[in-house]
TrEMBL record:
<dbReference type="InterPro" id="IPR013746">
    <property type="entry name" value="HMG_CoA_synt_C_dom"/>
</dbReference>
<feature type="domain" description="Hydroxymethylglutaryl-coenzyme A synthase C-terminal">
    <location>
        <begin position="265"/>
        <end position="325"/>
    </location>
</feature>
<dbReference type="Pfam" id="PF08540">
    <property type="entry name" value="HMG_CoA_synt_C"/>
</dbReference>
<dbReference type="Pfam" id="PF01154">
    <property type="entry name" value="HMG_CoA_synt_N"/>
</dbReference>
<feature type="domain" description="Hydroxymethylglutaryl-coenzyme A synthase N-terminal">
    <location>
        <begin position="5"/>
        <end position="167"/>
    </location>
</feature>
<dbReference type="InterPro" id="IPR016039">
    <property type="entry name" value="Thiolase-like"/>
</dbReference>
<feature type="domain" description="Hydroxymethylglutaryl-coenzyme A synthase C-terminal">
    <location>
        <begin position="177"/>
        <end position="250"/>
    </location>
</feature>
<dbReference type="GO" id="GO:0004421">
    <property type="term" value="F:hydroxymethylglutaryl-CoA synthase activity"/>
</dbReference>
<protein>
    <submittedName>
        <fullName>Hydroxymethylglutaryl-CoA synthase</fullName>
        <ecNumber>2.3.3.10</ecNumber>
    </submittedName>
</protein>
<keyword id="KW-0808">Transferase</keyword>
<keyword id="KW-0012">Acyltransferase</keyword>
<dbReference type="InterPro" id="IPR011554">
    <property type="entry name" value="HMG_CoA_synthase_prok"/>
</dbReference>
<comment type="similarity">
    <text>Belongs to the thiolase-like superfamily. HMG-CoA synthase family.</text>
</comment>
<dbReference type="InterPro" id="IPR013528">
    <property type="entry name" value="HMG_CoA_synth_N"/>
</dbReference>
Length: 389
């Protein structure tokens, strides 16, 4: 249809290394059932010393630029909550690594795990203004909690890149959105800390409150009825959270929460996140990739999206899947990104976790570890030096 705007292409990248939850459980004596069943996580992506949000973002976006060219990309929006600089947008490094045209604007967005959805809506607005424009939206994050804390098992890292355009090949994004904001301290990371602070139980109830609030507004804005959706992509700090959230939404709407119905709506969205862990801004879009890549034909079906960022902001919106979408998917590349990671032992994980770059800002030369297309080579004179691998 001629006024459609949405996601034309979707690609993700993750890290070189992976820590299986069995290794973490062996170290800390946790029953593996808590990880595999209780939170629904099997392994977590761990960045190599020469990987960060920029190298993952560029790796996620490169196949999109290779397929569609860069000419009509007028805007790059990079969403993250694990930024590498307080002033310069990480997207400018990505713009350079990908050789994008100088006639583009680049900006970074932040609101915890929510900001990629703000970026998507910003992109849709820009394309609405000029339908020839394309916007590259990239969500990239490293989730890092303190060693031996309850959050540790929910770490992860990945980037998701989307090309937003008119007449999209994958998912058409609909109006209206349901919006919700509340000032809560469930999860935050002050500027002087490398790891996030979190009140685990508070964060789960803040998330559920936000689901309710965003859905309530969505209904008031005249959105679709709950029964019209064939799947729901939730933000997944750990995959069990999507099930909790959906059960909560069904309860709020007065539906009986049938286990089979919940699984049908959620299971296909969790495949990648269970192996990657929390990727903050990218998480819900990895959920979409997982759904499109792994579910039976979804043509013309409506998908519900619930984007949540602690602090907190949430948005519920709908998308419909475009005929022919399957020929555009990157199923093999996505599965390879997960299966080709190199498992590390607990000692290597701990070394990588503790080795955040010299916080005195001294010079640093990174060992060659990544298998991705770009690497962080060094810190030199307070500058980050990136290069193709
Ligand atoms: N076999 C099976 N299940 C088991 C088990 C076993 N042996 N042992 C425990 N479980 C179950 C528990 O019953 C529980 O399930 P329910 O919640 O369904 O009852 C689950 O495993 C987790 O157990 P606990 O609640 O005891 O776990 P915990 O207190 O150690 O930590 C956590 C869980 C709070 C999620 C913690 O991992 C954490 O703080 N994570 C970071 C914060 C987070 O992800 N919050 C989510 C909402 S905020 C958000 O979404 C933004 C974001 O990205 C951070």
């Amino acid at each position: 249809t001629s006024d459609a705007i949405g996601i034309h292409d979707l690609s993700f990248a993750t890290t070189r290394f992976v820590l299986p939850h069995t290794t973490l459980a062996d170290h800390n004596g946790t029953d593996i059932g808590k990880y595999h069943t209780g939170i629904g996580q099997r392994s977590m992506s761990v960045p190599a010393a020469d990987e960060d949000i920029v190298t993952m973002a560029a790796a996620a976006a490169a196949p999109i630029v290779a397929r569609h060219g860069a000419d009509q990309i007028r805007t790059v929006v990079l969403a993250t909550e694990s930024s590498i600089d307080q002033a310069k947008s990480a997207g400018v490094y990505v713009h350079s690594l990908l050789g994008l045209p100088s006639s583009a604007r680049v900006v970074e967005m932040k609101q915890a795990c929510y900001s990629a959805t703000a970026a998507l809506q910003f992109a849709i607005g820009l394309v609405h203004r000029d339908r020839s424009h394309r916007v590259l939206v990239i969500a990239s994050d490293v989730s890092r909690y303190e060693l031996d804390s309850p959050g540790e098992a929910t770490q992860g890292a990945a980037a998701a890149a989307m090309l937003v355009s008119a007449d999209p090949a994958l998912v058409q994004i609909e109006d209206p959105s349901g919006l919700f904001t509340a000032d809560v301290m469930d999860f935050w990371r002050p500027n002087y800390r490398a790891t996030a602070l979190v009140d685990g139980k508070e964060s789960i109830s803040a998330y559920l409150q936000a689901v309710e609030g965003a859905w309530k507004d969505y209904a008031e804005q005249g959105g679709r009825a709950l029964g019209e959706f064939s799947a729901f992509c939730y933000h997944q700090p750990f995959t069990k959270m999507a099930y909790k959230a959906h059960r909560h939404l069904l309860g709020y709407c007065g539906h009986d929460a049938d286990k089979g119905e919940i699984a049908r709506a959620i299971a296909d969205t969790t495949t990648y996140n269970a192996d990657i862990g929390n990727s903050y801004t990218a998480s819900m879009y990895l959920g979409l990739a997982s759904l499109l890549d792994n579910a039976d034909d979804l043509t013309h079906q409506a998908i519900g999206f619930l984007s949540y960022g602690s602090g907190s902001v949430a948005e519920f919106f709908a998308g419909t899947v475009v005929p022919g979408y399957r020929s555009q998917l990157r199923v093999a590349a996505h599965r390879d990104a997960i299966t080709q990671r190199h498992p590390i032992d607990y000692a290597k994980y701990r070394e990588l976790h503790e080795q955040s770059f010299p916080d005195d800002g001294g010079d640093y030369s990174a060992p060659r570890e990544t298998a991705g297309p770009y690497r962080l080579a060094a810190l030199s004179g307070h500058k980050r030096i990136y290069e193709p691998r």
